Amino acid sequence: MRRSGWLSLVFGALVGTLVIVLLATTVTPPSNATRADCVRLITSSSTEKGDLIAELAERYNNTGRTFDRGRCAKVEAHKKTSGATLDLIADGWNDLDQHQPEPQVWLPSSSLWLDLLRQRGKGERIKAGPKTSLATSPMVIAMPEPMAKAMGWPGKTLGWGDVLEVNRNGGWASKGAAYAQWGNFTLGKDNPRRSTSGLAATIATYFAATGGDYGKIGTAETVQFVRGIEASVAYYSDDSVAFLKTLYDEDRKKPTPYISAMAMQEQMVYLYNRGVPTGDPAQLKGNPVAPLRPLVAVHPREGTMLIDHPFLVTANASPEQQAAAKDFYDFLLETEQQKRFRELGFRDPGGNGTPELAGVVGTQGAQEPPKIGVPTGEQIQKMLDGWEYTQRRGRILLVLDLSGSMNEPFDKNRKDKPYAESRIALLKPAIRKQLEYLHPEDEVGLWTFSDGYEEKMPIGKVKNVRGPMVDLVDNLTPKGDTALYQTVMAANEKMRREFDPNLINAVVFLTDGENTEAGTKEQVLQNVDAERLDNSVRIFTMAYGAQADSRVLDEIAQKSKARSYQAVDPYGIDKMFVNVFSNF
Q1: What are the residue boundaries of the VWFA domain, all occurrences included (predicted)?
Q2: CA–CA dist 163, 141 (Å, integer)
Q3: What does the pLDDT read at residue 437?
């Protein structure tokens, strides 16, 4: 070969290689996550799909996707219950307790929350536009399979009327002697002011009670029906994801289900039956263990509500953020992302599910009842106002740590307010405020503890004891050590002796430290172990400050089938109390 021809071949090969490199560089743009010039877009999603949205946001950021002639966006995903986010948006967003920035995109579970925002006169805080939906999931009554079969499933289509019938006829014994060990029919339900599942279940029970005529919301017959359903509620959770985790943990410990049913989205039943009760999509990759007793997704025969999972842009979004939000929404509707929604048990935006979904949740071959009509914002507000009087009332023993450490600053390492203020001084206004929120017909009493425990106020109707209790709280003076274990057991034993089956019986226990007196953790956990939710006392624990023994408090709450909460920042004190008392 001539030298010039050889050189031409080498030069051509080099040019070809360079073109391939340039093409590869063009095809694989830099990740938006590493770019400093991208539009910052904050999203706040409902908790049941929060991990999925975070996963898809990371996928979006890694695509290097652009819009509007080369602009890019970086999505930051956060999660919070829909009701809590509604309150923050309506009040101007002050979320210092969790340091969550104000979102430009709100992804609640349901458009019902937008209706309630408008009912509050704050609808302008969401940008007007066409109705959107990322996915859907019907609200269902989720029952452990043995219990659903005892009520006639799958041959019988069940509904809210059947729940009411079991309650009125003396519990599970009415279905046969073999089922008497299950006790009363116990329903797990979220607080409808904070959770979509709770709100949708409340609407569905009113729909069943009125035959779909929302004009009858306030009639005596409707109130009697709804009150009958609410009478079976074990306690009102602020987030059904946490409730499901407890149910899953108990599934392999107890020979019988510890709850009769839960009102939730069908999608959550799917994940629970797959062994992922927390909703974390990453767990599906790790060969999760399915529960021994799967849940059956009962679509109430009276009708069910389709939860529509909208994509809402807030009014505070800049023009650039609005454009970024549109691009993120378009991305979420693309085939690959929609496939991910289906993989996690959601239906498509039109309400169509997959055969796999039907098989996992137990609805294959069943004819679905009609979707119920969506009430107006005014009607929803009437139902929530009515729920205040139909909900199951609570009998609560509030137990407060009064050891010497409560005189110390909330944070010894800071000199600025409120961190430099004493723990007891910060606690008193939070208690006063929460006592105002309790319903007059609830019952509440007060204990304090340090070296030992002392009854400050016997349990009585809130309307009778609220004033004297506020005066007592204002005059509390800390001193002594921390008899945590002794006090938990004594409070639990008192509430068990005085157990009222018509009320939610609970201890609300707050401490800023760890046990310094006699007793062991093992003794406490054995003492508070709840066999069934219809005859046991729930102990809701509050870890107050960074020095509180939050690990032990978590174990106590879990053993009693309740929840634990924390306030590691002064700004989180009010929220901790709101979350605890929303269970009643």
Answers
A1: 395-580
A2: 10
A3: 81
Q: Is the pLDDT of residue 2 over 60?
A: no
Q: How confident is the model at residue 73 (pLDDT cuts 50, 70, 90)?
A: very high
Residues 94 and 68 in one domain: yes
Residue with structure tokens 């509707």?
Answer: 333
447 forms beta bridges with 399, 455
b vs e for 502-535, b when ≥16 Cβ sit within 10 Å of the residue's Cβ?
A: ebbbbbbbbbbbbbebebeeeebbebbebebbbe
State yes or no: pLDDT of 25 exceeds 80: no
Which of 68, 53, 63 shows the shortest CA–CA distance to 33?
Answer: 63
pLDDT at position 318: 95
What is the chain's length? 584
Q: Give a yes or no: residue 121 inside a domain.
A: yes
Cis bond leading into 291, ω under 30°?
no
Burial (0-12, 13-18, 19+ Cβ within 10 Å), 339: exposed
Residue where the block lists tokens 């948006």: 89
Q: Into how many domains does the chain fold?
A: 3
Residue 211 sits in the same domain as residue 321: no
User: Do 56 and 124 belong to one domain?
Assistant: yes
Establish if 517 belongs to a structural domain.
yes
Residues 88 and 174 in one domain: no
Query: Mean pLDDT, the chain, as a whole number?
Result: 88
Sign of the CA dihedral 95, 100, 104, 105? negative
Q: Check which CATH number belongs to the domain holding 299 and give it.
A: 3.40.190.10
445 neighbors 398 (Cβ within 8 angstroms): yes
Q: Which two tokens stand for residue 1?
A: 């070969």
pLDDT in tens, 345-364: 999 999 999 999 999 999 88
* Residues 6 or more apart in contact with residue 87 via CB below 8 angstroms: none
Of residues 88, 65, 81, 112, the one with CA closest to residue 326: 65
> At 92, is the secondary structure helix, strand, or coil?
coil
Which position has the token pair 């920042």? 569
Helix (H) / strand (E) containing 295? strand 295-298
Q: Clarify whether residues 244 and 371 are in a common domain.
A: yes
Instruction: Looking at the structure, tell me whether residues 337 and 233 fall in a common domain.
Output: no
Q: How many Cβ atoms are within 10 Å of 404's Cβ, its own excluded? A: 14
Question: Strand runs (DSSP E) across 22-96, as ranges?
Answer: 39-45, 73-79
Residue 131 pLDDT > 90: no
Q: What is the mean pLDDT of residues 336-340?
A: 96
pLDDT per residue over 261-312, tens digit each?
999 999 999 999 999 988 888 888 888 999 999 999 999 999 889 999 999 9
Question: Do 542 and 503 fall within a single domain?
Answer: yes
pLDDT recorded at residue 30: 64
Residues 64 and 30 sit within 8 Å (Cβ to Cβ)? yes
Running DSSP on this structure, what letter comes out for residue 409?
B
Q: Is residue 2 part of a domain?
A: no
- 413 in a structural domain: yes
Positive or negative, the CA dihedral 247, 266, 109, 275 is: positive
